[in-house]
Amino acid sequence: MIDIEKIKKTVEQKIEGSDKFIVDINISVDSKISIILDSDSGKINIDDCAEISRTVENVLNRDDEDFELEVASAGLSSPLKMLRQYQKNINRDIDIVFTDGRKLTAKLIGTANNGINIEYEEKVIVENKKRKQIITKNETVTFDRIKSVKVAVSFK
């Protein structure tokens, strides 16, 4: 059986001292190993993935267990999973899907151990005004209220 802790330790040793970090390691029932990496600078290239792949293959024995290995970087369409990913995306727009199904695009302005701080604009009715006014709101959203968060793609 493939040991996920052995893989994690191997990858951590290989990336130690760099700005790279593990986002996720998953092993499927049919022995497909998937390793997702990210970096604080946002720069994970194919050479980085190939190097990690070779390192992991060297510590696993194909004679004992057949496996498929995939090493990739966390892409733009990947949801944020770790606090470190949120921290590297401060001051960027994010798309949030809440556990109640509500969706919101907001600016990530900070993080906390239990959630994120966001800023967004909302149209509200203001007393003595005929039309709704746009106001800026700041809110702290705890992780237990969040289903998923992705960096918003902007072509500005």
Task: Describe the model.
It is a single chain. The protein is elongated and about 75 Å long. The chain folds into 2 domains: 4-73, GMP Synthetase, Chain A, domain 3 (2-Layer Sandwich); 83-151, SH3 type barrels, CATH 2.30.30. The chain has helices at 4-15, 46-59, 83-88, and strands at 20-27, 32-39, 68-73, 93-98, 103-112, 115-124, 133-142, 146-151. The strands form 2 sheets. Strands 7-6-5-4-8 form a 5-stranded antiparallel β-sheet. Helix 1 (4-15) packs across helix 2. The longest helix has 14 residues, at 46-59. It has 156 residues and is an alpha+beta fold. The protein starts with a helix and ends in a 5-residue tail after the last strand.
How does the SSE layout of this entry go?
Layout: H1 4-15, E1 20-27, E2 32-39, H2 46-59, E3 68-73, H3 83-88, E4 93-98, E5 103-112, E6 115-124, E7 133-142, E8 146-151
Parallel strand pairs: 2-3
Antiparallel strand pairs: 1-2, 4-5, 4-8, 5-6, 6-7
Helix pairs in contact: 1-2
